[in-house]
Design goal:
149 residues, alpha+beta, six-stranded mixed β-sheet, two-stranded antiparallel ribbon, 3 helices, disordered N terminus
Length: 149
């Protein structure tokens, strides 16, 4: 009985990965850490410590508050990378995504999100890019992303 469950979970994970990659067109997804990504510079208000950054909210709109669920977690008990992407996609309705078809996405993971945390998801549109930011309640940046068409 355990074997079919594992296969089902694997199929669901692969399906989610394929969905994310297909929704980004042929250019795909680029993930980076905060030290090498130019997209982070537009969001940082000030650096706190070695790895915590606060957010510059100028021109952004809070889209919703996401509570990190147990189903969002990876084996290390922080939010799984794919769930960050879904969190940003959920910030806009399906009508928006019908008109705005991303060809490229860049995401930068800044700090871990844990179960029960409330994460503020903010966005800003400039030209052919939607900028997203996920913020902890204390203002630290959890993740930033650019979706480009």
């Amino acid at each position: 009985m355990k074997k079919p469950v594992r296969i089902t979970v694997l199929v669901l994970c692969l399906t989610a990965i394929l969905f994310v990659l297909s929704s980004c067109g042929s250019a795909g997804v680029k993930a980076s850490d905060q030290s090498e990504s130019p997209l982070v510079g537009t969001w940082i208000a000030q650096k706190k410590g070695d790895s915590d950054y606060t957010f510059n909210a100028d021109g952004t709109e809070e889209r919703y508050i996401r509570t990190v669920r147990s189903s969002d977690l990876d084996v290390n008990r922080h939010m799984n990378n794919l769930h960050y992407i879904a969190m940003f996609q959920d910030a806009c309705d399906s009508r928006f995504w019908r008109d705005f078809v991303p060809k490229e996405m860049e995401i930068c993971f800044m700090s871990q999100c844990r179960e029960g945390e409330e994460i503020s998801v903010r966005s800003q549109m400039t030209g052919n890019t939607v900028h997203f930011a996920a913020l902890h309640q204390d203002g630290r940046i959890a993740s930033v992303a650019d979706f480009r068409r």
